[in-house]
Amino acid sequence: MSDLSALPAPSGLLSNVLRFVWGAARSTRQPAAPARDRADQRQGHIALVGAGPGARDLLTLRAVKRLQEADMVFHDRLVDPEVLGFARPGAELVFVGKEVGAHAWPQERINQVIVAEAARGRRVVRLKSGDPGVFGRAGEEIAAANARAIPVEIIPGVTAVCAAAASMGQSLTERGVADTLVLATGMGQKGDPLPDCTRLSGPGTTTGFYMSVRQAQRISDALMARGLPGDAPVCVAVEVSKPGERSLRGTVSGLAQLIRDNDVRGCAILLVTWPREAGATVTRAAPVAADLPA
Prior knowledge:
Layout: H1 12-28, H2 35-41, E1 45-50, H3 61-69, E2 72-75, H4 81-84, E3 92-95, H5 107-119, E4 123-128, H6 138-147, E5 152-155, H7 160-167, E6 180-185, E7 205-210, H8 216-225, E8 233-238, E9 246-251, H9 255-261, E10 268-274
Parallel strand pairs: 1-4, 1-5, 2-3, 2-4, 6-7
Antiparallel strand pairs: 7-10, 8-9, 8-10
Family: Belongs to the precorrin methyltransferase family.
GO biological process, one term: methylation
Enzyme class: transferase
């Protein structure tokens, strides 16, 4: 092989051409964009993630993956702090919890901010207790994302009614006893009448009531007006899968007293199974006084 060092050096003209080509190539290279600029340039994304009832080991694998990928996590009041430990280091955690009478983060503001961050190219997780699609106002957040053409997905979570039944060691449905499962809430949108949350309850049903502790007497009266015997069993699951978890059992007629005696407040699920043999028909009763808006 010939010795390259023995070759003559490039002539002045050739050297100038090489320098021109090299300089042109360097000028076409773009400097690396700062991290925040790269985030602005990429496609943003919103994941509505179900955090389950509380225990971190009840999250799905996909929920954990989205948390580990997120740039920002907007989380509810009922999300257990241990669940937030799945977020990747450096992710921004934003509390957007709402309580009755204290909405520092109204839903409209939440919609706006999660969409705005995703529009900047950030991977956003909206972390909700339970399942996003069960009384989680997911529809409003999906609509806000769609209006800006932001990709959005739902990651299901273990909803509180399922977790409540599991903690009590009972099935929500059973052949010959209850072949229909109803999920209802005792609370409605501000300014609207309270919902008729017992309208689908009847023989052969199990009804799980969310956000209904303050409506216990109204629900009890409405169920009995529909024909459910007052001595029918009822379960109250408090702080399911969390350190303060409690399981209470009583009767439909004594539901409100059971809640008062045990100082139940806030996060609880009411479970009522109406066995098929407890009544053959359900008559549509006129609203009782307790059914009317407070």
